[in-house]
Amino acid sequence: MNFSLTPEAQAYRATVRRIIAEAVTPEAIDRMHSTGTFDVPELTQALAREGLLERAVPGRGGGDPIELWLLFSELEKAGAPYDGISVALMVAGVINAVGTEEQKERIIPTITSGQALVCMGYSEPDSGSDVAAATTRAVRDGDEWVIDGAKMWTTMAHEATWLILLTRTNTEVAKHRGLTMFILPMDTPGITVAPVHTMGTERTNATWYDGVRVGDDAVLGDVDGGWRTMTVALAFERGVMGGTNAGVPLLRHFRAWADEVGLLDDPTVRDHIARTAIDNQVAALLTMRAAWIAATGGLPGLEGSMVKVFATEAYQRAARAFQEAAGPEGLLQFHEPGAAADGFVDYDARHSPVTTIYGGTSEINRNNIAERHLGLPKARS
């Protein structure tokens, strides 16, 4: 099997690496963790100026989805913030796949130019990963829709221009079939945003919708067809757009610190390092498979579930092993004297559990693999 990249893809990766090196400074990383906003506008705008965001939009870009994978692979390996970029490009791909021509012309250029970020309103306070149980209602009122409800984990809502929002529009059918997706401006009257700070230093948000009025031009996909719209997004999120390389910067930070303090002489530590390096390589290969499927016209939903389960759980194992090896210093946070790897060991130990939740929990993804790949009976109603 040939894993080599085309000359165009190699040039794309080299440009991404150059921009990351220029824009993602230690000060930017520190600002990311101190504010909880995992986005660097300078990075987004630099990528946009080079045309790299436009090239990576799923189904639209000149080199997607291999270049889409390369973009997020390089961002994640560098430890760069990419929340804002990933959601924006994913939603641009969804608009390109199921949106109207008017939506494509009105919204996608604001994203690929680096002017606009997007947030996702999927999960709700009472249903979590069971997004099909959404109770946020959209009710037809004349030629408008009126939306009322609440969402949780609406990351980047405090910075976003656009919101993609999953609502219940039909209560008389199965829960998966009565959903409709909307895309609307975040400054639409009736939207409230409140911060939720996570243990992994990231800020997310709770959002409320009180009599939010939108027209049919805000419907993304078909009325009562929101589940299909969402599955298009998840296919890219789980398999191609980040979340599978977090073990790379963890390994880099820990190994450098372990060498500095003399821990590399410990055979157990060397074993943890070797196992993590192998897991990182397996995760990369699984991600490349998902990217290849997308590149040949498929949607890597099942393969995305496979790579997400493996990569995020391997990252969590490595973070626990390295924190245990670091001892008390592994519990010290950024800017605390003596912190292992300048606080990154503690950060990864707190951040890694979160990665097994967003984009669908490990349990949800295991059900997907069991049912669709192994042919096992459904584990849920």
Task: Write structural notes for this entry.
The protein is 49% helix and 14% strand. It is built from 13 helices and eight strands. Helix 11 (301-326) crosses helix 13 (362-372). The mean pLDDT is 90.
Provide the descriptors you would attach to this structure in a database record.
381 residues, alpha+beta, Butyryl-CoA Dehydrogenase, subunit A, domain 2, Butyryl-CoA Dehydrogenase, subunit A, domain 3, 3 domains, four-stranded antiparallel β-sheet
Task: Give me the CATH architecture of the largest domain, please.
Answer: Up-down Bundle
**Strand order in the largest sheet:** 1-4-5-8
- Whole-number total of structural domains: 3
According to CATH, the fold-level topology of the largest domain is: Butyryl-CoA Dehydrogenase, subunit A, domain 3
Q: Name the average pLDDT.
A: 90
Share in helix:
40-55%
Task: Walk me through the topology.
Layout: H1 7-23, H2 26-35, H3 41-49, H4 52-56, H5 66-77, H6 83-98, H7 101-112, E1 118-121, E2 137-141, E3 144-151, E4 162-168, E5 179-185, E6 191-197, E7 203-215, E8 219-220, H8 226-239, H9 247-261, H10 267-295, H11 301-326, H12 344-355, H13 362-372
Helix pairs in contact: 1-3, 1-5, 6-7, 6-8, 8-11, 9-10, 9-11, 10-11, 11-12, 11-13
Short description:
With 381 residues, the chain is of the alpha+beta class.
